[in-house]
Amino acid sequence: MPRYVCIHGHFYQPPRENPWLDIIELQESASPWHDWNDRITAECYRRNAASRILDNDGNIRKICNNYSRMSFNIGPTLMSWLKKHAPRSYGVILNADKEGAERFSGHGPALAQGHSHLIMPLANRRDKVTQVKWGIADFKNHFGRMPEGMWLAETAVDTETLEVLAENGILFTVLAPKQASEVRPLKGGGAWNDVKWGKVDTGMAYRCNLPSGKSIDLFFYDGTISHDIAFGGLLYDGSAYAKRLIDAKPEGARSTLSHVVTDGESYGHHHSNGDMALAYCFEAIDSGHEATLTIYGEFLEKYPPTHEARIVENSAWSCAHGLGRWSSDCGCSAGTPGWHQKWRAPLRDALNWLRDKLAVLYEHGAGQYLKAPWEARDDYISVILDRTPKFVDNWLLQRASRKLTEEEKTKVLKLLESQKGALLMFTSCGWFFDDVSGLETVQILRYASYAISLMRDLTGLDFEPEFMRLLEKAPSNVHEYRNGKRVYELAVKPSQVSFERVAAHYGLSVLFADLTSDIWEEFSGGCWELAGDKTICKNGVSGSQVFATGSVSISSMITREKKNFVFAANHHSETNVACGIALQGQEDPLFKKPESLRAVFAEQNEKKLADIFEQNVFSLRHILNYAQRAMLNKLLEQDVRRIETSLNRIVGNYHGLFDYLATLNMKAPPIIRSSAGVLLTAGVERALKEEFPDVPALRLDMERSRLWNAALDQDQISSALLEWTGKQMQAIYESPTDAELMDTVRDVLELFARELNWQLDLYEAQNLYYATQTGHTTQTRQIASGLRASFRRLGKALKFADEALVI
């Protein structure tokens, strides 16, 4: 009987956005990338969308979309981020589901996931229902179809969770082998066979009959091979990986399924080149005759369950103690020596307390405006996915018990947003790692704080003091933090963003008018809309280099709340800046005398400023973090240009001496060589800002670097080269009609590879080249009509094998 192989990847990142901004702020631990989503996309998600098969010389034979040949789920919060920030990879993933459906008998390989990655057995039934409904709606929004299966966070399961899945039309889920308790044949029933501790036969699907009379099918994956993929080095060799999967299930009297499950991040992030091992594995299975690739939906259709199974209640794949990893100091951790996890239980207790308090106020508040508050929450995912005013108005019209005023619409949206925060604050990653001060735990506390702040605005009730008192019971392993309350004070409260802080951010930013576009670039991708006018005085006086006054209108695109402010901002010196704000119409009479107001700022009379602005005075530290960095970087760039000019005057006089010293095999003094290296690096970077760099000049700079022993800054130049190559390859992809540009890209790449022997990052350039030559568009015909030689030479420079050059 035939043997089948299925590989499932659970691709997931927790929600990382600052809930007050709806953008991910800089995460320094992900350096050199902006944040962890960005980093793992580069290392994993993008790579599996375009994985390489190489020849013996390391050249590309084929680029593969791994997603189209595997079963996968991508968490809703990650999928939405990919759509916005990695649209090409997002599109490849959507196409993979369509391509997979053609391959797998009409079954798409994508599975849904509970929306916010909650540990379902630890959630109440109401939250379970919302999680499943949101997960299904999000999946349908992206993939355009109803999901057949749903991934459970950490495979955490209980019977009530399975009931909710079945009620919502989910056909199957995937669990760890240790989560099977008992099995028996469906036909005839009989005694149950104990299969605890991983003794279940993983080669078939099982039916789980539920107390309600409904049922759901279960797959229990091969735990041993899955472990070896993640931790046992199986991804060092794709062919060995394929053989291990095929040999796991010998041929027998019935068709069998060899299937494994790991975090999708194993394929590239946890294991470098893990995506290539996966691609080689798929190639080996596809090219052989020993097994057939499949996915769960297809296998289930071909081979329905012949046995039924019972689960181990309150179990999960990543904890040996049931659900302890998310509720107690069970011993499971990320492995920091000597650290405890005594903080887990108090953290969950505090969040459960907050959830219940918020639920009472939500039900009462929303009940005044909505026909069915909890049904509205279950459908609020529709608004999260489409916040256009027209859609939101129609949605509220359908859900409201009467016609709502604009103010009442804002109240309803705030109530629903508070519930969104109350769900996101239970994201499982908050408990998974080693300390209450960890990045993921801080993030879920941000969502809790967000929910608290919304409810405080609506009702005047402030749950924060009691919540912080409960967090004080959660001890930290880090002396600086001491406990959860201290973490909240130091890491959560500074991230809170009010209308007033946004107004101050605007007022302070206009002091640096030439930097404003950089300061607002990231901010504009969030949830605030601003419209302002300003008057800037640059005629410096003592204590006031620049002074600005103006007004700004601020609207939340989420709650539709709007406020109008006036501001006055002053740049005293260096980073010494201040901004006062007031609600428009409530400002101090001194606003009508800007020069007098400027004088107060120049004097730095803090008491008088506090009186004028009723304590609403802000400094540079109140500007959002990324904007502080953008501003400082721009200021430093100006200094760098001045230093380069000075160095050029000095080092320019040494060219002849450098050449003479080289003939004697002598080195110039280190400080002069360092200065020369800085100038040569700057010259190469400037050249790479041009569409057609002067290749002979680049070659000369590289030769001088070698002869003069003046090292180039490889990181700076590599970054500039990556940006230049990406820009030019995008131009070629969009309109491949310029042979000169193709030849220039080839010449530059060959120059760097030959002269400097650097390992160049060609990944995105290769993807664009491959997409250009394989696209069934006018691009392909244009290339074939007269540019074939240049295009093929470029392909060779990008390390494509001859067999991959199909044009």
Rg on CA atoms, Å = 30 Å
Q: How many DSSP E strands?
A: 19
The secondary-structure class comes to: alpha/beta
In DSSP terms (H or I, runs of 4 or more residues), the helix count works out at 31
| Percent of residues in beta strands | 5-15%
**Average pLDDT over all residues:** 91
- Overall helicity: 40-55%
Low-confidence stretches: none
Largest sheet: 6 strands, parallel
Spatial gap, N to C terminus:
42 Å
Topology (elements, then pairings):
Layout: E1 3-11, H1 36-49, E2 51-54, E3 60-64, E4 71-74, H2 76-85, H3 87-103, E5 110-113, H4 125-143, E6 150-151, H5 159-167, E7 172-175, E8 180-185, E9 193-194, E10 205-209, E11 215-220, H6 223-231, H7 238-247, E12 256-263, H8 274-287, E13 292-293, H9 296-302, E14 307-311, H10 344-366, H11 373-379, H12 381-385, H13 389-399, H14 406-424, H15 429-432, H16 439-459, H17 464-471, H18 484-492, H19 499-509, H20 516-523, E15 528-537, E16 546-556, E17 562-573, E18 576-583, H21 594-603, H22 606-612, E19 617-619, H23 625-651, H24 655-663, H25 670-687, H26 695-708, H27 714-734, H28 739-756, H29 763-774, H30 778-786, H31 788-797
Parallel strand pairs: 1-4, 1-12, 1-13, 4-5, 5-6, 7-11, 10-14
Antiparallel strand pairs: 2-3, 8-9, 8-14, 10-11, 15-16, 16-17, 17-18, 18-19
